[in-house]
Design brief:
The complex is a heterodimer. By secondary structure, chain A is mainly beta. Chain A has three helices and ten strands, in the order ββββαββββαββα.
């Protein structure tokens, strides 16, 4: 099992999930009406804006914010319900136990933030993008 | 060494071999695991759900800062009865370097079981339960399933590979 580390986290909510993303891994946060810059790839613009609720197999949510990342194919926005923390601060991240790593597919949870009794999964949106939209990892 | 051999009780000459099991209930079901695999019993009523996991992974809990996955045996074994709404504790078990928690709504205790009480599994059990059974025995009218925890972990890993 790996050792705890620290990182700047942005906390967000999608339906029943309260999750986090490492601040350095994203490009910016936009509102729900965000549209990507035109890219050279053949992907439709609407495919570049993804409802995170759909990725997590949750009922449709009324997403209010978009977390935008840079991918090899251009920008992709993940629409989430809300961003919890206005101030981005350093948080300790507990590693994912090996057993749990074996059970997560795609392997997009990279650690956990423990806040008192609450446990918050840290999501790597680049791995989500790779698994669901660039087809390198099975997710069904 | 298997989980079962670890739990054989000392034998006196001519005495019937016995095994020790930690017995607990979850809804209509009763399970037994080797007492040596039980780390502690935790009072908890919920786990934090984790995305991208099978439905039988109920989530994770923090135990003194360590992340522990919670496996829902009822869902994993695809049992036909109703899920318990009285779950109020978890059995934290260790299998080699791995630790995980299992839901329970009642701790029965440690039971000494003579080998003659161990029965072959009933044929009407679900496939996923049959694959993880080390045997079963009866306590009054209840059938207690003896879970081979190593086999359970092997099977969960195999199942995730096919998802």
């Amino acid at each position: 099992m790996g050792k705890p580390r620290e990182s700047y986290l942005i906390l967000f909510r999608v339906g029943e999930f309260r999750l986090a993303v490492e601040a350095f891994s994203i490009q910016h946060i936009a509102d729900a009406n965000w549209a990507p810059l035109a890219g050279p790839e053949d992907e439709e613009e609407e495919d570049r804006v993804v409802e995170m609720a759909a990725v997590l197999k949750l009922p449709p949510q009324e997403g209010k914010r978009t977390i935008v990342i840079d991918t090899p194919n251009g920008q992709r926005g993940f629409v989430v319900d809300s961003i919890s923390n206005e101030e981005i601060t350093l948080h300790p991240i507990e590693p994912v136990p090996q057993l749990l790593q074996d059970w997560i597919r795609p392997t997009a949870i990279t650690g956990f933030l423990v806040e008192q009794e609450e446990v918050i999964g840290v999501v790597d949106l680049h791995r989500v993008d790779e698994a669901y939209f660039r087809g390198s990892q099975s997710h069904e | 060494m298997t989980d079962e051999t670890v739990n054989e009780t000392p034998k006196s000459p001519g005495a019937e071999p016995q095994r020790l099991y930690f017995v607990f209930r979850d809804g209509h079901e009763a399970y037994a695991v080797p007492p040596t695999s039980v780390v502690e019993v935790i009072t908890k009523t919920e786990a934090t759900p984790v995305p991208f996991t099978p439905d039988w992974l109920d989530g994770v809990i923090s135990v003194r800062g360590a992340i522990v996955p919670v496996l829902d045996l009822f869902r994993y074994f695809r049992l036909p009865s109703k899920i318990s709404n009285r779950r109020n504790r978890m059995i934290l078990v260790g299998v080699g370097p791995n630790a995980f928690a299992i839901w329970s709504d009642q701790i029965v205790g440690v039971e000494t079981v003579e080998e003659s009480r161990l029965e072959p599994p009933l044929s009407n059990l679900t496939d996923s339960l049959l694959k993880c059974l080390a045997g079963q025995f009866r306590m009054e009218d209840t059938v207690v399933y003896c879970i081979d925890l190593r086999k359970l972990l092997e099977e969960t890993r195999e199942q995730v590979k096919t998802l």
